[in-house]
Design goal:
phage-related protein like fold; 4-stranded mixed sheet; 15 strands
């Protein structure tokens, strides 16, 4: 258990050190380092111990509470070093660390499926793309001649409106008296995990195509479709060997950038599927040799099987991302976006191939953030809530370039 007295000494020292321009920032930074790199964990701290040492007269006040002393007792600001604000900052950082640890799901894949797109626009947002055609630069410029003015081709993608999610964790008088640190940290972990799961599911639903998030030139379209929308990023191949990925590659080769009508500039980086198919995908990528067998008709009509073992045609650096959340969402979202994945068998047959972080973004107004309410407020008097920590995030997944990803239902063998 980490002793709050040590924190109090650090706070005293920081406030007295004239070389430190912003003691509050320094204190929070030191605690952040202690929790992230110094070996300390949120569970090493006691809310009661922190209250005793970081609130002026905290020990006496907690004793009054415990003895059910009915006399009024006003919390006062410390003369120099320790104040109610320090209790707020320290507990806020401890709970933030716990929330952040839980927010980052151990098996989550959202960060592998979408690139973070920082934004300040809460509503739907137009992302103008500017593309110059190669033909504009076809003619050489003679010596001494001026450079020509060139035009740009607009390509407008509209991202959805961002959505805010979060909750408030209260620290009550009863929790301080009973020192329910473990319970409070558990609630903080649950809040962080809930926000993490929410983002995970929303990103996956956009990735699998269940949510129509592709808005091109103010027309909302399905993320995955065949040639009726000008390109085909759907296939039905069962993932068996390198030839199935070659068929997906052929779809990439047939696509053109809609702005300049040039071949699509996409280099596949990832295969995404359920955990069950992920093992097969890894064997496909890592296979040193692939046995092929062809029937050859000999003289007299006799048939003879002739086999060979050519080397694998795939790059070994393709990443395979397997995930159970993906399978659960496929089952839940069957029928949406053309998905036929209502059973585990059908869901496990699905796979994706391409560059998901080029295809999808997560428009983020702000990432996981905590805020501490000031102490000595109305809630403290009315509800015995001595401290509140608000946790929130604001963002939404969107489709930037659906041509960068291929989806297969995995139902037909090549």
């Amino acid at each position: 258990m980490f002793k709050a007295k040590e924190l109090r000494k650090m706070i005293d020292s920081a406030r007295r050190d004239r070389r430190i321009d912003d003691p509050d920032e320094y204190i929070v930074g030191e605690l952040h380092y202690l929790l992230t790199e110094g070996g300390a964990k949120p569970e090493d701290f006691s809310i009661r111990d922190l209250f005793h040492n970081l609130i002026a007269d905290g020990y006496e006040l907690a004793g009054d509470w415990e003895r059910a002393n009915k006399k009024g007792h006003q919390v006062t600001e410390g003369a120099l070093a320790v104040s109610t604000a320090d209790f707020s900052r320290i507990t806020g950082q401890i709970f933030f660390t716990k929330v952040q640890d839980s927010y980052k799901l151990t098996t989550g894949i959202a960060d592998k499926l979408a690139t973070t797109f920082p934004s300040t626009i809460q509503r739907t947002e137009l992302v103008p793309g500017i593309a110059a055609t190669a033909d504009q630069y076809a003619d050489a410029i003679p010596e001494g001649h001026p450079y020509p003015l060139v035009g740009m081709t607009a390509r407008d993608i509209r991202l959805p409106a961002a959505e805010k999610r979060g909750g408030i964790l209260p620290i009550t008088r009863e929790a301080i008296i009973a020192d329910r640190t473990g319970d409070l940290l558990g609630e903080a972990g649950t809040l962080g995990q809930g926000l993490g799961l929410s983002k995970e599911k929303r990103v996956i639903n956009t990735f699998i195509g269940a949510v129509p998030s592709y808005d091109f030139k103010d027309e909302t379209r399905a993320t995955y479709h065949d040639t009726d929308m000008g390109f085909d990023n759907l296939t039905t191949e069962i993932l068996t060997d390198f030839t199935d990925l070659q068929i997906a590659d052929q779809l990439f080769y047939a696509m053109s950038d809609p702005s300049i009508n040039e071949p699509l500039d996409v280099a596949p980086t990832t295969i995404v599927c359920g955990n069950l198919l992920a093992n097969q995908a890894r064997s496909v990528i890592r296979a040193i040799q692939v046995r092929q067998q062809d029937a050859v008709v000999r003289a007299g009509g006799a048939r003879e099987n002739v086999g060979d073992t050519p080397g694998n045609r795939l790059d070994f650096d393709l990443e395979v991302v397997g995930n159970e959340f993906l399978i659960r969402q496929l089952i839940l979202q069957t029928g949406n976006g053309g998905l036929t994945s209502g059973t585990r068998a059908l869901a496990n047959a699905h796979w994706w191939y391409g560059n998901p972080k080029k295809a999808f973004v997560y428009k983020e107004i702000w990432g996981l953030t905590t805020e501490e309410a000031p102490m000595n407020n109305e809630e403290q008097f009315r509800s015995d809530i001595w401290h509140r920590v608000k946790v929130s995030e604001n963002g939404v997944p969107g489709v930037m370039e659906p041509r960068a990803i291929i989806r297969s239902g995995g139902t037909v063998a090549s």
